[in-house]
Amino acid sequence: MNIRCFTSSDAQQVIALWQECGLTVPWNDPQKDIERKLSVEADLFLVGELEGRIMASAMGGYDGHRGSVNYLAVLPRHQKKGFGEALLREVETRLLELGCPKINLMVRTTNQPVISFYEGCGYTKDPVVCIGKRLIPDGDPAKR
Ligand SMILES: CC(C)(COP(=O)(O)OP(=O)(O)OC[C@H]1O[C@@H](n2cnc3c(N)ncnc32)[C@H](O)[C@@H]1OP(=O)(O)O)[C@@H](O)C(=O)NCCC(=O)NCCS
């Protein structure tokens, strides 16, 4: 897998990847998520490609206190071959280079396979509750 930074021409393939991996939800607009990411730490938005086709993604972030990883995805037919962990390690390396001391990330409590994946990669559950407030409504208002 070749890992590189996302470029605007990747958007269609990346959104298709997220859809195939079940990461798109009615209350998030993937196109807007991409546009916002390109305006903040775009170089932490990575894609993985095999034979010129995008088959993996990871959207890293760093706020000066904690790092984050969103949209970690590997196309189903390429899963369980080590690509997800390799991409996660690349985000970790880049965050470490920025001086980031810890990554906090969110996984839906119903997504036990992915929790197991992260635990296998050295992550542990923290005793915290994730609290959120939406500032900009996205997606289809009927499904929000
Ligand atoms: C999470 C995801 C990116 C993992 O990618 P992957 O390429 O399949 O993972 P890897 O092959 O690198 O797996 C690394 C380790 O995690 C383990 N693992 C991977 N998927 C697992 C699963 N479903 N259950 C248990 N362990 C799992 C692997 O067995 C491997 O351990 P090993 O080295 O001891 O064999 C991939 O499953 C995915 O795209 N899921 C759908 C999207 C998603 O939900 N993303 C997370 C959003 S929060």
Summarize the structure.
The termini are far apart. The protein has a single domain (2-143), classed as Aminopeptidase (3-Layer(aba) Sandwich). It is an alpha+beta fold.
Structure description:
With 144 residues, this protein is an alpha+beta fold. It is built from 4 helices and 4 strands; from the N terminus they run βααβββαα. The protein has helices spanning 11-20, 30-39, 83-97, 112-120; strands at 2-5, 45-50, 53-62, 67-74. It is globular and about 40 Å long. The termini are far apart. Pfam families: Acetyltransf_1. One of its GO terms (cellular component) is ribosome. InterPro entries: Acyl_CoA_acyltransferase, Bact_Acetyltransf, GNAT_dom.
What's the CATH topology label?
Aminopeptidase
Q: How much β-strand is present in the residues?
A: 15-25%
- Helix content range of the residues, please? 25-40%
- Dominant shape: globular
Order of strands, main sheet, comes to: 1-2-3-4
**Structural class computed from helices and strand pairing:** alpha+beta
CATH superfamily: Gcn5-related N-acetyltransferase (GNAT)
List bound small molecules: coenzyme A
Sheet of most strands: 4 strands, antiparallel
Number of strands: 4
Question: Taking all residues together, what is the mean pLDDT?
Answer: 95
Rounded Rg: 15 Å
The ordered H/E elements are EHHEEEHH
Q: What is the annotated CATH architecture?
A: 3-Layer(aba) Sandwich
Number of domains: 1
CATH class call: Alpha Beta
Tally of individual helices: 4
- Kindly report how far apart the N and C termini lie: 36 Å
